[in-house]
Structure formats: C-alpha cells, structure tokens
Amino acid sequence: MLTPPYIIDLPSLLEINLVMSLVFFILAISLISLILYLRVHKNFRNQRKDKLEVLLIDFINNYLFNEDFDKPNEINRFIKNQLKTTLDKKVATKQLLVYAENLKGESSAVIKEIFYGFGLYNFLIQDLTQKEWYRQARALNVAYQLDMDIPMDLVDSFINAKNKEVRQQAFLYLIHRSTDNPLGFLDKVTTPLTLWEQIHIENGLKTYEGVPPDFSRWLYHKLTSVVVFNLKMIADYNQYQHIPILLKFLNHKDLEIRLQTIISLRKMEAPEMIPILVENFSKENPQIKKEILITLGEIGLEEQLKSVAPFILQEELDLRVSYLKIARHLNPGGAKEEIDDFKKITMLQA
Amino acid sequence: MNFNFFELIDIASLLFLTYGLIIISGYVFLALFSFMELRDYKRKHNFKDEVPLLQSSHLPKISVLAPAYNEEANVIENVRSLLTLDYPSFEIVIINDGSSDNTLQSLISTFDLYLDDVLYYPHINTKNVRGIYSSKHQAYKNLKVIDKENGGKADALNTGVNCCSHDIICCIDVDCILERDALLKLVKPFLNNDKKVIASGGIIRVANSCIIEDGRIIKVRLPDTFIARAQILEYFRAFLMGRMAWSRVDGLLLISGAFGMFDKKIVIESGGYNPNTVGEDMELLVRMRRLMRDKKIPYTVSFVPDPLCWTEVPQSWKVLYRQRNRWTRGTIETLGLHKRLLFNPKYGVLGMLSTPYWMFFEWFAPLIEFAGIIFLILMFLFGQLNLPVFLIFFGVVYTFSILFSITALFFEEFSFQQYKKPKYMLRLLRTALLEPILYHPFVMWSAVKGNIDLILGKTTWGKMTRTGLSNPSKTKPN
Q: Domain tally for chain B?
C-alpha cells in the first residue's frame, strides 16, 4: 500500500479534519477558477460589447443618414449576423438608448423603427411579462426612454408592484407617455409614495412636455404621501390659484400635511397664512412650530414673531434657538438681551 | 506529565471541530446573504442613472461632520475636496479638536474665516467650544469650522452634532476621499424605505497607491506593500461579505466611523457618541438600535456597497498594531456596555444573532486562536507534538482561511471589480495565500494585546500616523 502508516492509524476526528482540509482546498481552487472564469468571461463580454457597439454605431448612422442604405435587407443581415445572444440584444438596446437621448423629432422616430426592426420590442415585452422584478424594471426603463407603446394594462399592474424599482419605472413611463394627464396614475396608487419615488416623479415631470397638471386634483387623495407630494408640486409650479385650499389645510388633521402646507405656502410667499399660523402656534408640535417660526422669519413681522414666543415651552430648546436666530435676523440689535440670557442658561446647563 | 496524548488530542479536536463548525456555518451564512444582497443591489442600479435627481430641491439637507486633529498638512486639500461634493444642499462642519499645530490658522487664512456668533443648544455635553467660524466668501458659505478644546474624536463629533444645522448628519474622517455622488447614494436609503432609517453606512476602500487628483481617486491601483494588500483582503471580507450580509438580515452593529450617515434626532436622543470608549462608532449604533427597540419604533439600518469612501490604511506594523489593539478594546467595551442585548430575544436579530456573533467571532476568536498556539508550543516543549497531527490541524485552518479570503475576492470580482488589471488580481490571490501566515498572526496578537491592555485599564487611542495619500507626481506608475 502506498498510504503511509500514520495516516491509516489516524483517529476518526483527525480523518474528518483531513477531509475538511481537502474540501476547503478544492473549494478554494474552484473559486479561483471561478474568479478567473469571471475575469475572462467579462473580458470577452466587454470585447464583444465594444465590437458590437462599433458595428451598431456604423449601422445606425447609415440607417439615419445614408439614403442608399438598403434598410430592410441590412436590418435582416444585421440580426442574422450580430444579434444572436441576449447580450447582443442588451447592447443593441443600450446603444439605441444613447441615440434616443441625443436625437429628437424624426431621427428619434427612426431609432424606434430600428428598435422594432431588430425585434427588440418582443425582447422587451418578454422581459415585462417575466416575474423577475429586475427584468420588469429594466424593460419599463427602456420603454420609457425610447417612448415605446406597451400594453397599458401591463403597466397599470405595476403601479402598485411590490418592488419599488418596478413601481418607480412604471410611474416614469406613465408620466412620459401621457399626453394630458401625467399624474393620472396617482388615482390608482394604493401604496404610499416614498420620498425617493416623489423625487423621481418630480424629476419625470421636469421633462414632461405637456401642460403641467393641476396638482390640486390629488389634494384629497387617501394617501398622505400623495397629498404631500402634490402640495410640494403646487409650490414648485407656482399654482397660486390653490392658495385658498392650502389655507384650509393649515388646520388639516394630518401632521405631515399641515407641515408641508406651511412649507409650500411659505415658498409661495402667501402672507394670508400668517394669522392662522400665529393662532395655531400654541397647539402645534415642535416640528410644525419650527416651520412656523421660519415662516415668520421669512414673510412675517417682528411683532408676529414675538407674539408666539410665550408659547415656546421650556423644554423646546431647539425651538428657542430657532426663535432667537430668527429674532436676530429680523432685528439684529433687538434680541441681544434674550440671546445673552439663553447663552448663560446653556453654559450653566453644560 | 501524565496524560494520554490521544485522549488530549481527541478533546482538543472535538473543541476545535465544534468551534470550527460554528465559524464555518457563520461564514457560509455571511457568504450566502451577502451574495444575495450584492446581486440585488447590482440589479437595482445597473440600468439607471440617478444623477439628474441632484436637481431636486426636495432632497434633505445634510451636515457633513469631520473632526480634525493636527491635520495641518492635508486639511485644506481635504476641505476643498469636500466642498465639491455633488449634492444640492449640504454644509461641511470641520471640528478642530484642540490641534496643537496650525490646523485652525490655515483654515482661517485659506477660507477667509471670521468668528461667527452661531447660536446652538448643546444637547450633548462636550469640551468647551472656543469659537465657531464661517467664511466671508460666498463660495465657502456652506463651510463651518468649530474650534474646541481637545476631547477626542467622539467629543469632537458630539460638538459637531450640537452645532450643525441639518437633520441628517454624515460623519467622516477628514482625510477620507469621497466619491462625488457619495452623499446622494448614502442618503437614498433614508428616503426609499418603508421603515424609519436611523443610519446608513458605506464601504470603505483602500486608497494607498491610488492616483489622486484634486481630492478624487482617478485611478485605482493595488498598494505596493504586502501589509496594505492584506488589509484590502480584510476590508473585502469585512465589507463585501460581513456587513452586506448583516445588512440583509438587518443586524448591522457597526457603521464605520470613517463614513456613516445618521438621523441627528436619534443620535441626540441616544446621547451622542460615547467619549469614554475607543469604539465610539460601534457603540453609538448599538445604542441607537437599542433605543429604537426599547421605544418599539420600527426602524432599520442600511448599508450601501458602492465604493464611495476611500481611506489610507496603516503602512507600518506599529501603526497597524495600535489600530487593531484599539478596535479590539472598542469591541469589548461596546459588548460590555450592552451586555443586556446578548441572547436577549427582546432585541430580535440584534440580541440573538449580531451580538453573539460579535462576541464569538470578533472578540473570542483571537483569544481562542492564541490559546491554541500556546497549547501547540507546550506540546512541542514537552515533546508531545505529533507532526502529522499538527500538519492536519494546520492544513484545515490554513485552507479555510484562504477559502474565506478567496470568497471575498470572488465577491469583489462579481460586484465592483475595482482592481481591473489581471496582475492585481493575481497579486491579491498571492496575498491571500500568504496572509494567514505572515499577517494574520500579527493582527491576532494585536487583538490579544488589546484584551490585556483593556484589563490593565488602557483607554487611549494611540497615535495613528499616516504616510499621506499619493498623487501622480509622487508615485511611480504601476
């Protein structure tokens, strides 16, 4: 036998250790092989991507600008020779997106024509109907950027998707595709909008070419986040005609809505809100009190600010700081005594 | 000595196997969960560009807090770099922690600062603030410099928390290099979560030998020294495997002090950073989590795997020793302060998984290893060392160590692939083979010494000397 005697006589626990060493060693070698494979695979992928991108740029440029280009035959030839794998299709889609971003009008329509010609639309629909969220989100993103028609019932089903990315891409698609009601999907939203989604929607609206919607339509939506979003947009889009509604919202029972109403009205510099704010100050929580103080600092008077000061509670120290800062801003010399007193107190407490 | 050698071996083997199995299961769990987390993160972010969102006026304002102690040499360049971060609304708060060099003077003269009468309430007790400075220049209007008596990093950060203006704070080391979109990426979890996010952390990358221009990494290079490369592997293991996995199960106990974002209100409510521990970053997060649990408020802690923050790691064994010694003391102090969490089902994952993991894998592991080495030496001295048995034991530990490092390397390759040159990957593989023998014992000893120093009452940070990050004119092309 070739096996050394000290191996044969090993206790079983040591044998297990030996086997484990071998297992770890084999796993380590396998992982190293996997790393090398990944590196080689990525390199090949990148090479193929680079090569295909050059071919695509050449093809698209010819398609766009060369009148002698035999479009139907060339497209078929390109599909047959170049668009064989999923990677090829993804690269082609990405390249078309680059063109779509930089071209407008007729040229943009030609890009869509190539997209259809390459059969990428089927690829997109296939992704949309898969259950994997990342494929759905990616497909929606492409459809949105290329301005593609996709079955609306399919998109509608994504409005309340469990995955946030899918939801977000569906919103962007619906904003982009709408001709007169970019926020129509809000009527169907049943999942609260995260702040991130709100920022995406806000950003989507910036590129919307139609008339901005009347945001007051959703001020009575059952979701607070939807109402808050629309309050923000009313201020961003200077829809001053809604100030009367917003004034009523200063007494809304929902704290978040009250808070955003104050911020929006402040942005719109609506002095009508000041008496209501002064009256409500004592009943509000510290967060809203702070916004009231900021508002008084921006569009109020020193007297109005002073009238709310007694309602800043002893323990509301941050609020006291905000008050003093604003008082100093309104009347640089006026609040000196109060500020000195406050500094003494804080020094003593420290 | 009168004992049966094979009986002793059997007992040691059993103990070893049990501990080994626990460790292996722990690492398998880490690997699986971090793989899932990385895969999902990649899927989420590989098809869209979020930079246009920077135009929004509804992104929350952020205060970036950076303590500086004797940073005269680099502070100006670092502040300039911070001022150019891509984010619509943020302030940079530099806290000069009683530097004995000219840190403050250089800041005052470079940024044309004046003593400002800033009002604030000191929610957290700190050392005396000597003055708060603002700039006369519009270009630096979002820069604030606080000058205070020396009180250590935790005290400096607490001062920053007291004096800063915004509700979200980002605590960083002043010499860290942040990617331009770092704030946007780190704030995203705060805005895109169904639960309240109390903190989010990011991956720390090793900047040694990288090419830096205008405070930005423009070319990632592998460090020339073995000690720095070994730390790269450690960081891969800690961040790409460890923290990604803990983030998946919402069990993160540590957000690096070099780069983390926090909800200021919760920080204040928790009492701020603890100046009496050297592990103030971990201790704060544990305390914040405990507070939320005790108040029964649903919350989460998030982690972003993008390479957003780059830092210089120790290049000398002496500095590395001090750092690891301090990390160990910080871990033990935190676990000691929060021993109530341990195996306490009331705290969920935190009590049943995270704290036991930190105790067994971070605190005890070096001690057990050290005990094993002592046992080995004793066996050798008493002539009881059986070479084949030793080799088998050594083999299993060694192969597992390299397997773990190689798994982390695989994750890097799978996710961000920052080291693009094939020779970098080969050098890292070589480092993975050598690290368990040439590097790990040193780190283990630093941790053991950390335990001893803690028992002896050592509470200092230890000097952290940096050699300075390279720039193109100073470094050779690689």
A: 1
Statement: residue A1 has pLDDT above 70: no
- Domain housing B362: 1-48+176-478
- Using the Cβ of A137 and the Cβ atoms of chain B, whether some distance falls under 8 Å is answered with yes
What does the pLDDT read at residue A347? Answer: 67
Residues 340 to 359 of B: which have CB under 8 A from any A CB? none
Chain A touched by B237 (CB under 8 Å): no
Residue A212 host element (H or E) = none
- Quick one: which of A167, A68, A150, A85 has its CA closest to A112? A150
For B222, half-sphere exposure in the C-beta direction (CA atoms, 13 angstrom radius) is 21
Q: Do A21 and B396 touch (CB under 8 A)?
A: yes
Whether residue A31 and residue B122 make contact (CB cut-off 8 A), yes or no, is no
Q: How far apart are CA A203 and CA A200, in angstroms?
A: 5
The rounded percent of chain B whose pLDDT value lies above 70 is 94
pLDDT confidence of residue B471: 47
CA–CA min distance B453, chain A (Å): 32
The dihedral region occupied by B386, where left means phi > 0, alpha psi between -120 and 50, and beta the remainder, is beta
Within a domain: residue B351?
Answer: yes
Q: Does A57 touch chain B (CB under 8 A)?
A: no
Task: Report the distance separating Cα B258 and Cα B252, nearest Å.
Answer: 16
Q: Which has more pLDDT, B377 or B133?
A: B133
Residue B129 lies in a domain: no
CB contact (8 A) between residue B58 and residue A318: no
Question: CB of A198 within 8 Å of any CB in chain B?
Answer: yes
Contacts of A175 (CB under 8 A, 6+ apart): A182, A183, A185, A201, A204, A205, A208
Answer yes or no: do B399 and A346 touch at CB < 8 A: no
Compute the average pLDDT of residues B160-166.
Answer: 96
**With 60 as the cut, is the pLDDT of residue A77 above it?**
yes
Where are the strands (E) in A196-247, listed by range? Answer: none
B-chain residue closest to A327, CA distance: B119
Q: Residues with Cβ < 8 Å from B268, sequence gap 6 or more?
A: B123, B124, B161
pLDDT confidence of residue B477: 34
| Inter-chain Cβ pairs, chain A and chain B, closer than 8 A | 131
Rounded-to-integer distance, Cα B5 and Cα B16, Å: 16
pLDDT digits (tens, 9 = 90+) for B250-304: 999 999 989 999 999 999 999 999 999 999 999 999 999 999 999 999 999 999 9
Q: What is the pLDDT of residue B383?
A: 83
For the segment A196-223, the average pLDDT, to the nearest whole number, is 95
Q: Is A39 within 8 Å of chain B by CB?
A: yes
* ipTM of predicted complex: 0.88
What are the structure tokens assigned to A225, written together?
């986040």
Joined together, the tokens standing for residue A254 give 């929902």
**CB contact (8 A) between residue B191 and residue A195:** yes
Q: Is 90 exceeded by the pLDDT of residue B347?
A: yes
In a domain, B57, yes or no: no
Look at residue B107 and tell me if it is in a domain.
no
**Whether the Cβ atoms of residue A191 and residue B192 lie closer than 8 Å to each other:** no
B373 exposure class (CB count in 10 Å sphere: 0-12, 13-18, 19+)? middle
Residues of A in contact with B121 (CB under 8 A): 317-318, 320-321, 346
